[in-house]
Amino acid sequence: MSSTIQKTDANPVVSALLTAIVFNLGHLLINGQQRKWLYTLIACFVGSILCLVPGLVIWVLSVIDSYQTAERLQKGESIPENEYSQPMLYKIMKMVDNTATCARA
To answer: What values do phi and psi take at 64, rounded to 5?
Structure first.
């Protein structure tokens, strides 16, 4: 069972920028989701190595997810450590991480 995260000081804009610019770090540093950060980072790299388009798609969805998750945390929501806010990213990542969850899927 994964732990839950509560961070009312999470900033969606900073989270999205860090995710977009610095190796998906918004998931880790702002949202506190270590496992999600690791899996999405690896998926971005593998997708980019195999063919640029899958890596870019995962990266864009990851930026959106990071923003949406930080918004949820900022509103005071308690979310599981491996919870995805972006349903499309969740469906992709569920193939490699069977512990992933998504309340919006």
So the answer is: -60, -45
Calpha distance 13→73 (Å, rounded): 13
Contact 8, 72 (CB under 8 A): no
Instruction: Please state whether the predicted TM-score (pTM) of the whole model is above 0.90.
Output: yes
Q: Which pLDDT does position 105 carry in this prediction?
A: 82
Tally of CB atoms within 10 A around 22: 11
pLDDT-derived band at 30 (thresholds 50, 70, 90) equals: very high
- Residue 68 is assigned to a structural domain of this protein: yes
> What's the chain's Rg over C-alpha atoms?
12
Domain that holds residue 53: 11-93
For residue 72, being part of any structural domain is answered with: yes
Query: Under 8 Å CB-to-CB from 23, ≥6 apart: which residues?
Result: 41
The domain tally of the chain equals 1
